[in-house]
Amino acid sequence: MIRLFFCALILIFTAEAGAQFLDFTDTEKRAILRHGPWPAPWTPDPTNRVSGNPEAIALGERLFFEPRLSPSGKVLCATCHAPFRGWQDSRARAFGHADADRNTQSLFNVRYNRWFGWDGAGDSLWAQSIRPMLDAREMGGSQAHAAALVRADAELSCRYEKVFGAPPPAADEGVLAGIGKALAAFQETIVSGRSPFDDFRDALARNDLPSMKKYPEAAQRGLRIFVGRGNCSSCHFGPLFSNGEFHDTGVPFFIKGGVDPGRHGGIRKLEANPLNLLSAHNDDLSGTSAVKTRQVAIEHRNFGEFKVPSLRNVAQTAPYMHDGSLATLADVVRHYSEVNPDRLHSDGESLIKPLRLSAAESQDLVAFLESLTETASALPPRRPGTACVTRP
Amino acid sequence: MEERRDSVRRLAGAIARSALGAFGALAGVAATACELPPGVRVESERLSISYWTIPAKIAVGQPFVLELAACPKTSEPVSERVKLDAHMPEHRHGMNYRTMVVPMGGGRFHSEGWLFHMPGRWEFRFDVGTEHLTHSVRIE
Prior knowledge:
Chain A is mainly alpha-helical. Helix content of chain A is 38%, strand content 2%. Residues 4-16 of chain A have low confidence and may be disordered. Chain B has a single domain (2-139), classed as Macroglobulin (MG2) domain (Immunoglobulin-like). Mean pLDDT of chain B is 83; it is low at 1-31.
């Protein structure tokens, strides 16, 4: 009897382990292969002269966990971007000193973005890293406060000089840009590891059937919906599973006391930001990196548009959507299955339609999304910090 | 600092070339003397154009530069009033960026600000003076 039970268990496990490989069409295979390889190639950010610099990464890491950047001494970057919570906070909406209006985005793979924040108000990771420091609801600081801290603290000041080749300058804005660039250098190291999907995708690329069969059948069926009739991969495109741009997905954008203008407001904030890539703080002298900032178009349809988030490690980053209104991946799939096209606020973009998925199909899509989660962390080990010593 | 000076020099050069181009346009690029460089050829009743992108292969979500050369089929010179754009007809939306077009002289134009943010069929729209030309490409 016991032997029979174990035989049955083995049979069930084998079936669940994906003994079948779905016969994907050539079109589907091409679409699947576009989601890799992972990790994607990356080159240091030309707008940040200390991008990839180990000393800058070390300074950025200190600043990321530095509560004194907030005048109250109570809020640090890691308050909302907690490493043990997928570099976000698991709350519907961010909370520093007070409730904010939007969900905290994970920092996984943030270095691959073109725009930063749900509304894309940041055109560089370093400019975006400054924003929460100055927001009264988040860290509640100021340019003068952050600059004074770095100038006055011997350790931070010493490290700043090591990274930038000169002591913190007299102008607060210059120090703030330096803080942002060091923070960005650290966040660029936060990259997600390989997932079961990546193993499947690479096996598909080399036509390795035994390896492909290790990928659960439910995830394969979900993948077929994702790249096929779900049309999900039109926006959740490429190795990052995001095209880096903005769309209205039918999530309400009403907030306490008004509406969240989304991308429309983001472009306005971008234009007004003295630290955007059109400023003298941009280290890319070729001018190439500033083209997006100069040429971005503001349209009426941008109201209610929010950035397409990456789906890598998505199972670790609940809740979902710009307002954190959907608690689970099953809720997200239900949203797209039943979305009301009349609520979409766009100029006729006909991409999002109710998918009308069956219960089994919804489960398959969730199984696929869960398979985008890393099997092992790719984060570099944290080194114990040593005290900074200036040259005599 | 030196790099900034180089960048200023390059801009000055581009303006000078543009001014020469304007002169060329005023003088008229005669249909017989006009030769198009290699690229994708698109024709209208009164104009032939050749365009190419840098990099040559357009990738979804990656910015690119587009250059264009135009030759008139009549004695009319090539207009410098050039507007370039692209659209996804099936999705009924365009790009999220507006292109900036710089006349380079002799009926040639340099444009920046291109980015196709979705896979699928994109239609380039070339408005040169009163001529309207289109060309479709499929981006994967």
